[in-house]
Structures are given as structure tokens and as C-alpha cells.
Amino acid sequence: MTDPGPFTLRHRVRHAAARVDAATPDHRDRAVDALRALAILGVVLGHWLVTALVADGRTLRTASPLQHMPWLAPVSWAFQTLAVFFLVGGHVATRGYASARARGIPYHHWLRGRLARLFRPVAVVLGLWTVVTVALLLSGAEYATTRTLVKLALSPLWFLLVFAVLTAATPLLTRLHPLWPLAVVLHVDLLRLGLGAPDRLGGLNVVAGWLVPYALGAAWTRGELERRRSGWILLAGGTAATAALVAWGGYPASMVGVPGAGVSNLDPPTLAAVTFGLAQCGLALLLRERLRGAMRRPVAWAAVALVNLSAMTVFLWHQTALMATTATGLLAGRLPGLHTLPDDPGWVAARIAWLPVLVLALGICWAAFRSWERGGGRGRRSRVVRAHRPRERGTARGVRHV
Length: 402
Known about the structure:
Elements lengths: L4 H18 L7 H21 L1 E5 L2 E5 L1 H4 L4 H7 L2 H21 L4 H32 L4 H12 L2 H12 L1 H4 L5 H16 L8 H19 L6 H21 L22 H16 L1 H7 L3 H12 L1 H19 L15 H29 L4 H10 L15
Antiparallel strand pairs: 1-2
């Protein structure tokens, strides 16, 4: 007798995808969700590929293959996708705020709803890592190891703070031209890197640098970026500017921080990182039509919807998944690509081989903590499941913008 298992599983996946597809409003721009999902997954894969926890006796320390193999810098070009996330965030926030005003929803109600989705999962991360930190210190773990792990686990929180500030300022940013924050980044870099001003001045770029793609998102909402020419101008101009800054301006080629480097393009964001983000935003705008076509396939759309439903969970827990895998692997000794120095192509090949295990570890974190992104609790989870069922009004509460 033929085993119907694979057919049944395939049928169930297609049926579930069809239900999500049917529950999605026709007016929804699925390209927006696809771009957000790609941005989140790009950051996750980028961190997993360029972050190493090297076992040195009883101590774990961070290292990066970009430090030992600078020719891998193009990896950071492909996976440093935060600009696209801020582009989408600015577009969704300004559109949502305009809709809230039209419906008479007060600003503080709108803001509370937006920030709640961002910060509900943070409490769980902080709570768990408080317990882990105390346990490590009481067990006699090296202080340097504890500090490394906690810093790595909580590093995604800086992004949420910046995103929250920009979200709160959305009413003031709806008409802001992106050239204004770009000018701030330019002048800060000129003072800090060219004229020797204090490094703390770079703190201005933490907000101004990410405000550039956020303001581009607002311009998208205003309909100023609908023509393909806008995307080509951003892509070509951003690429040319970044190449010039790296070749002649002294900026590093890597778009992420490299341990031991004199200048980081990301901490704080430099002019090169911002112009690179402009190129990414231009490419994202050019891909909108292709993504809309691809998202007409129910299975592809269901996968994107799933990532969007758990975007903050995936983002907040991916570093914990890496560390949990590293710590568990230590039971078997120093494993290539997991605990060894990332100084040769063999490490890269070994780390790529570890990616399925990291995905599995992140899946476990997702299963354990995803309900907190939607408010926690069994009742809340059941409401999310019901949200994917087709309804007469054709709305889908479960598939909504972050």
C-alpha cells in the first residue's frame, strides 16, 4: 500500500497557504511584507555568517571572518539590509498614521499600538538573559565570557530603540526630505573623521543615518517614488557614492563592524553606510513589481506572512540561537566553524554547514516565544489562528504590518 504521508503533508501545506492567501485583503501591497521579510532574514544570516564565538580555554570571545579575510567584505553588502527595514518601516508608519488620523484615532493610541508590538518580546529576552547571567556568574563562568554572551544577545536592542524614536517622531517626519538627515551625516563625518572632533559626536548619526531610509519610506507613502526612475537614481547614485567613499574617502569596504578596525561603518552609521543604504533602497523599489508577482503564489505569500507575524521574535532571538548552538556544541569539543578561529575558507565552509542547525535552534526559540509578540497567552494565539481564516470582509488581522 502506498504511503500517503508526503502527499498529505504537501496537501496540508498548500491548503493552509490557500487559507492565508484568501484571508488577505486584495488591496494589501504584498511587496512591502516581502521586503520586510527579506530585510530581517538578511540581518539574521549576516550575523550568523560574520559572528564567531572562539573557544579559548574556558573563555569565549567574539571574532569575525572579515577581520582575517577582508576579501569577504561583499558578504556584508548582501546581508546588511537594515536600510531596507527602515525604508519599509517609514512607509508603513506614515501610511498608518495618516489612516489613524483619517479615522479620528488619537496619536497616543496609534503610537501605543505600534510600540507594543515592538517591545512585548523584549521583556522576555531581558528576563531570560537576566536569569542566564546570574546563573553563569554563580557557576564561576569567566566574566569575559559572560560579558561577551550578554552583549551579543542584547545587541539587537539598539535597533529597536532607534526604530521606536523614529516611530514616535513620525508626525514630524511625514514631509521631511531625506537630504536633510543625509546632510547631518555628512557634516558629522566631516567633523569626526576629517577634523578630529570627539567620537561621541557620532551619536547624532545613529538617528540621522537611519532617518534617511525612514524618510524615503515617507516619500514612498507620498507617492514620490512610484516611477522606476526614482529607484534607478537611488541605486546608481548610492552605488557610485559608496564606491567613491571606499576608494578615496578612507571608509572601510565592510558595511558591518569588524573587530580591531579603526572605523566601523555601522557603529555609528557613516556616510558610506548611508549611501550604501540608498543603493539598497533603490534596488528594493525596483524589485516591487517582481515581488508583487511572486507573492501571488499562495505558498510564497504564506511563508512571507509567517515571517512578518514573528519578525521581532526572529530578530531578537537569532543571536541566542547562535549562542545556544555554540554552548551545546562545546560538549563535543572545539568544532570547526563553531568554536574555531575564523581565519581561513575552511571556517566559512564549516559555518555554512552549521546554518541548518542554527535555523533549527531559532525555530525552537520561535516556538517557545512567538506568542509574546502577539501579546502572549493561549487565547491570544487562538485569535491569531482564527485571523487566517477567510472572513466575509476579507480582512486578515494576523497578517498585518509591523
